[in-house]
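user: can you give me the structure for this one chain? tokens are fine.
assistant: on it. calling the predictor now.
[tool input]
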Amino acid sequence: MTADAREVIRVALGVVDAPDPLPKALRDRVVPADSSADRKLTVPERLAALLDASADLTYHEESHPAYVRLLSELSTDEARILRLIARRGPQAAVDVRTSKPFGAGSRLVAPGVTMIGRYAGCREVDRVPAYLNNLFRLGLVWFSRESLPEQTAYDVLEAQPEIKDAIDEAGGKCTTVRRSIELTAFGKNLCATGGLLPASAALARATKAEATRQLPPPDAR
């Protein structure tokens, strides 16, 4: 998927095969045709190219130029996770907390436990928390306070050894809090451009839930 998505986006943007990811249509506005394709543009040249294009009523950007840069910052496992969430929708996650009356004073034991690594076919399943942190850093996923409507996803998740081990380490008196992990609007935009979602998702906007029900990354809690 990673190679295919990169190729789709590079073709759409007309990116030159050079270290500089600036689209060719913009680069050609400030770089002479006989210049070396490997020459990196200066900051003034980049800004000049953007402003020149902004004044040209015939210029049209097929998709956001940041997509190419974002893909270069993903691992192959992270690409698999994006594909999973794009095709199968939001994924279940649970927090394990110590049990207290009415939840008062409960302690977080294990945050953000998921089956994402297994479902996505990740090669390095133990790195999934880091993968999710990176996807969050890039603005592609968000962590929701809400649970999924399909409760069977949590039944499977709560039966996993990681959950049982966390409960045992906390002395057995624990409860699980059901959460979910979703693509952001920007994540949907990128996946649509890469062919993982319908083209209409390239214009997806943030939902009310994304704007109001976000949690910090599990590792930050």
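assistant: here you go. The longest helix spans residues 76-88. The beta strands are 91-98, 108-114, 141-144, 174-183, 214-215.
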